[in-house]
Amino acid sequence: MTTDGRPLMSAGRIPILAPEMLTEVIGSACDIALLISPSEKVDSVVLNPQHRFFGQLAGWEGLPLADILSPESVRKFNMRRADSKAKGVPILGIELNHADVAMWAHPVRYSVHQIAEDGTLLMLGRDLRLVAEVQQQLVTAQLALERDYEAQRETDTRYRVLMEVSRDAVVLISASTGRIVDVSQGAANLLGGTRGELTGAPLAQEFDGRRRGELLEGLTNLASAERKTPMELSARRSSRRLLVTATMFRAAGERILLCQLEAATTAVARSDDLTEGLTQLYHEGVDGIVFADADGNLRAANEAFLNLTDTASFAAIRGRSLADFLARGEVDLRLLMDNVRRTGQLKFYATRLNTDFSGQVAVELSATWLNDRPDPVLVLVVRDASRAEAMRRSTLPGQDEGSGNVMELVGSSPLKDIVAETTDVIEKMCIETALELTRNNRVAAADLLGLSRQSLYVKLRKFGLINRDDD
Amino acid sequence: MEDMTRGLELPTDRATVGLSRFASDVVELLLVRGGARPAVLDEALLQQFMQVIVTGNLADIAQLRGEFRRLHVTPGSLAELYIPEVARRFGEAWLNDTMTFCEVTLGSARLQSLLRDLTSDFFDEEMDSSAGGVILIVVPDGEQHTLGGLTVAWQLRRRGVSVCLLLGPKLDAVRTLVASRRFNGAFVSVGSSRHLKDLSELIRAMKSCESHSLMVAVGGSIAEAEHDEVARSGADIVTCDLDEALGIMGVDMARARVGRF
């Protein structure tokens, strides 16, 4: 066709070409031309004399077309050819991959024209090997990248497990921003937060009475000092005294301080000042302090505890069981004792205290088991939790996250389904927690949940927490 | 009277705070459960997604994310459903010559990079050594596209299976690896019949360890197109059905789990 759509030959502008001339024209107009016989064998191969990529392809002549194409390309060619025949139109663009014994597979973009009634085809091709080589480089680069990612994944996993499981207290801090880059579980325990809360937080914020610049400078000096005398700091969240040593290293252009933490308990000197201070704290402190024996019977309680329980004097309650003051009675006491005997301490145990006038007050208990003596002692610090919670309310962590989750949930199911499912989840969580707290004692768990034993068993079965024959 | 006020008000404050936190936990749990529900492809969204991948304007992906969220398409569904489907349609488009092999290669590379972004933070399977099994995945040397192998790796990891992924390894490296580690089974992802003749040799290398026989499954587009020939290569299983292959290998799927993703 000419540019204005008229057939070129009928205009008589191009005379009928001699076979040699036609071959030359075809050879120059494309990179490779194949003449395919009606039996789909390669009749002739014409190569562009200016294009040397293909070398000598005379060996293709006489071969079935299928033998010089990759199997995928044979399938593709047959499919497109059938479609072209049915519609009576030429195939103006088809990418095929050649493959034979001598040459590596390479792609050619052909246009396919039926030039005789008997089905003889002329295929005019453009070599795509230059593009294919660039593509190959991309594939190779991508493979290398993926191998690196996989190797990195393995290293990352080891690092993550190490930080998660190791008891060593290690904190990585960016020397330029002063923020915590990562923190091991051991360090999180000492600092009194979770790894999620601490990562990204400014280090200075985690210690009392330290400004950012001052703290970083101190740690940097400590890292470069020959004799590393640990720096003693007081953790804000856990109120623990910690000994900190630091090492500096560089990673990807950033200076990182590796800080190792250690509890400073051994460093606390016993002195008359301390004894005096502790005694004063016992008598005048705002939190209740209670000493009890191994059976949970009261040995001593301070003024703050007496105020919380509306008790007139300690003489009135001496020797009484702690269970009398705990809202869940024996269940609370057993949980406290079991946990402190197992781990030595229990933090932020939330419960209620019974007062002498049949009232109740919400409290948080921290329990410590002093076992280094023939007659072990349970020490409780009792904090009026309602006041603390009222202060925390304005800055509730996780509230934004919670509402984000709700936004995702709304619309996924009808409200009544969400509520029904929520009830199930809450029931299951409560039962699992009760079983964990009571160390799988189902009688105590039922008691804790305010359920009959039978009801608990029904729910255990419902949630698959028990086998039918496991009664 | 003052005492009664204290007794009524303060515990209520505390209860509100506690319940609010508790409800957040519950919602989180429900979302985890939601992740386990079978997701379905949204054709209009798929077309949009495909268009963004073809044009290569990854900034549009950020815009699409909002749409994905609105239709409750999690990153997990994107990786497990949408990315493989777009890859399959790219293959079809090459067959119909509506996309050139260059466009298909670039599109696949973009899908692969997106898959990597979506799954790079997913480490759950590694932290629970009791879940699932240990599987070797091999993408043979010379394969042009690794997206299939990577997608299978992700799908297995999501099921709690620990995966060792070998991309274009030499046969010696394969022999050394199978001799030194104990896998529950192995997958080979083959996309082109050009590599069929090398497949037998690869499978022989994978089964070279004398102390234990490694069960090998072959998948990829070749598993459908050249099923009989692949079966003659020495593979124990020829399938594109991951769960079927895991079942035959005896990987404990009862322990596998689907995390929130």
Task: Walk me through the structure.
The complex is a heterodimer of chains A (471) and B (261). Chain A is α+β, with helices and mostly antiparallel strands. Chain A is built from 14 helices and 15 strands. Chain A has helices at residues 19-29, 71-87, 129-165, 185-191, 195-198, 212-224, 272-284, 303-308, 329-343, 385-392, 399-409, 415-437, 442-449, 453-462; strands spanning 32-36, 42-47, 91-98, 106-114, 121-127, 169-174, 180-183, 231-234, 241-251, 254-263, 288-292, 298-301, 345-354, 360-370, 377-384. Chain A is elongated. Residues 393-402 of chain A have low confidence and may be disordered. By secondary structure, chain B is an alpha/beta fold. Chain B has helices at residues 2-36, 43-55, 59-70, 75-95, 101-119, 124-127, 147-158, 171-180, 196-206, 221-225, 227-231, 242-249, and strands at residues 134-139, 162-167, 185-189, 216-219, 237-238. Chain B has a five-stranded parallel beta sheet with strand order 2-1-3-4-5. In chain B, helix 2 runs antiparallel to helix 3. The longest helix of chain B has 35 residues, at 2-36. Mean pLDDT of chain B is 78; it is low at 1-17 and 254-261. At the A-B interface, helix 2, strand 3, helix 3, strand 14 and helix 10 of A face helix 1 and helix 5 of B.
Topology:
The complex is a heterodimer of chains A (about 475) and B (about 260).
Chain A: H1 19-29, E1 32-36, E2 42-47, H2 71-87, E3 91-98, E4 106-114, E5 121-127, H3 129-165, E6 169-174, E7 180-183, H4 185-191, H5 195-198, H6 212-224, E8 231-234, E9 241-251, E10 254-263, H7 272-284, E11 288-292, E12 298-301, H8 303-308, H9 329-343, E13 345-354, E14 360-370, E15 377-384, H10 385-392, H11 399-409, H12 415-437, H13 442-449, H14 453-462
Antiparallel strand pairs in A: 1-2, 1-5, 3-4, 4-5, 6-7, 6-10, 8-9, 9-10, 11-12, 11-15, 13-14, 14-15
Helix pairs in contact in A: 12-13
Chain B: H1 2-36, H2 43-55, H3 59-70, H4 75-95, H5 101-119, H6 124-127, E1 134-139, H7 147-158, E2 162-167, H8 171-180, E3 185-189, H9 196-206, E4 216-219, H10 221-225, H11 227-231, E5 237-238, H12 242-249
Helix pairs in contact in B: 2-3, 4-5, 4-7, 5-7, 8-9
